[in-house]
Amino acid sequence: MKKWFPGRVSLILPGLLLSQYGYAQLTLGAQLRTRTELRNGQGAPQPEGTAPAFFTSQRTRLMAGFSAYRIKLGLTVQDVRVWGQDASTINRTTTPDNNGFMLHEAWAEILLTDTVVKNKSLSLKIGRQELVYDDSRLLGNLDWLQQGRRHDAAVLKYESNSWSTHIGAAFNQNKENAGGTVYNATPPGNYTANTNGGNAYKSLEFLYVSRKLNKGNLSFLFLADQFSRYHIDSVEHVAVKTYEGAVNTRMTTGLFYTQAVNRFSCTAAAYQQFGTNGNGQTVSGSLLSASFFYSVNKTFSAGAGADYTSPDFDPLYGTPHKFWGSMDYFYVASGFGNKGLQDYYIKTKFKPNARWAVSGDVHEFYSASAITGIKKQFGTEADITANYTLTKMIGFEAGYSHFWSTATLSSPMVKNVKNAAANSNWAYISVNIRPEFLIK
């Protein structure tokens, strides 16, 4: 069954729609994903003697998609919470931090060219949507995080057999203002502003051009994001950021390449970042990445790769959990002193049948810049993940990660953890249930 709308949701009066548009189709779906975690130094080393954390989080989504002549609609609402975080007597109107219910996606895509134009299309997608490009390193939906990531944006898309060109833009405001465009970059809500947990952008523009190759792809990205300037005021002896109408502009541009030849596949990327970041600092950073994988046989594949990010580079709005270790020590909410990162890794995957898949990875992490008086090595991480598909709608996932950290990682110049344990670990088990229905 071919679906134009992968895994989306809810209640759109199917009887009325289908009677009015005999050629229309409606996709309904849901997701219930629980993740039980044991955290003993996930994100950053824990001080010696700290008790591990243990909890279960849950994401519940309702999704709907509607497709008719020259239009598609998508809707995703979700509730994200930790089991037991809010008792039935808590009023979440006055305790907004407990409110995990939100609109994840709500968009329309309008086909501007007539459908009789073969192999070419021009469309406009507007509304709250995920932005996912290439390998999700710089633009991804951050699906591992229960909240995920979305953007309020408009994207103009041109597609042909071998070329894709997308032009997107977003302009954020906190409310309907009577005057001015001052934007508070730390709006409330259960979501991260960007990959590094920094300021939310006030506006964003990007150009993405992709060329399909024989069993591969080559793409170009130029992205500019603007951040509200601010100054520090003292309110009752407490420093408070006051945001202004002027902006700082940061720009990121580069190439992504992937190619497969028989059993061999390779990926490479290079990006440059310049301009001024959200804190008003001039940046000049780069990201370089290269990897290869080889399918030994139908069940086993292995490969190796290396990533380099300079101290000034910020990986924007991507999915770091996919690249820099499952324990999320780098380029997530917990900073590491703006030292940049070198990551050398080996990855393996074993898939004995259609139901089972097991992967094992090892990362060796170093600082990309010198650190006065100490060595550059951050540590070693080993990750193992197992997936089992019970049915098309029910899946199980379990994982274990271990991090052997150095004194450099916990030093004041990096993670700044006093009396840090040298060994950290993290384990989880997840149940993912995704029913989907297509109504024609």
Strand percent estimate: over 45%
Number of domains: 1
Helix proportion range = under 10%
Give the helix tally: 2
Name the average pLDDT: 89
Structural class: mainly beta
- End-to-end separation in angstroms reads 12 Å
Q: Radius of gyration from the CA trace?
A: 23 Å
Q: So, CATH architecture?
A: Beta Barrel
Major sheet details? 18 strands, antiparallel, barrel
Shape: globular
Number of strands: 19
Return residue spans where pLDDT drops below 50 for at least 5 consecutive residues: 1-21
Report the top-level CATH class. Mainly Beta
Q: What is the CATH T-level topology?
A: Porin
Give me the strand/helix succession. HEEEEEEEEEEEEEEEEEHEE
Features:
mainly beta; 18-stranded antiparallel barrel; 440 residues; Porin; Alginate export; disordered N terminus; Alginate_export_dom
Describe the structure.
The chain has 440 residues and is an all-beta fold. It has a single domain (14-439), classed as Porin (Beta Barrel). Helix content is 2%, strand content 54%. It has 2 helices and 19 strands. The chain has helices spanning 14-20, 407-410; strands at residues 25-40, 53-68, 71-82, 101-111, 121-129, 151-159, 163-171, 203-213, 216-235, 238-261, 264-276, 282-295, 300-309, 341-350, 356-367, 377-389, 394-405, 423-433, 436-439. Strand 8 (203-213) and strand 9 (216-235) form a beta hairpin. The longest helix has 7 residues, at 14-20. Residues 1-21 have low confidence and may be disordered.
